[in-house]
Design a protein that fits this description.
This protein is an all-alpha fold and about 160 residues long. The protein contains five helices and no strands. Helices cover about 70% and strands about 0% of the residues. α2 packs antiparallel against α5 and α4 packs antiparallel against α5. The two termini are about 30 Å apart. The N terminus is likely disordered.
Amino acid sequence: MVYREIDDIYNPDKNIRFVDWSNSYTVGIDIIDNQNKHFIGITNDLYLKCLEGDATNKEYFSKTVKDIVSYIKEHFKTEEELLIKVKYPDINEHKKEHSDFVQMVIKEVKDYESGKMFVPNRLVRYMRDWVFEHIAISDKKYGEYMASHKDMLKL
């Protein structure tokens, strides 16, 4: 991640991102990479709303949660189907990470609905950490495995 000057944070005319896509996150499967890029976009949108103080707006937060749920449904299904197809040996661990992510989103939504403070801020930090810990490490690991088992994939 590129650290920005403090002036960038307070200048609304600049394109501020919490997470930048890096080619080092690429798993080599376009559909997966595009889904992960989309997730980074959702993360950056939520981050900007947090900076602007608009992230607690019920309509906005509900839309963001719907976007995250849509990503979860589409991405996790696609990814897990591919992992099964190539007989990825660490699939259960990978699915556990997915399950943990879903549980965290559910917890944050419940916290938001019960009136807890700073839920969007916690959620966006968790989303950023998901990029750095899951996409950059776990997804990259299976990407390397898939590259050596391309014969099993018919993409």
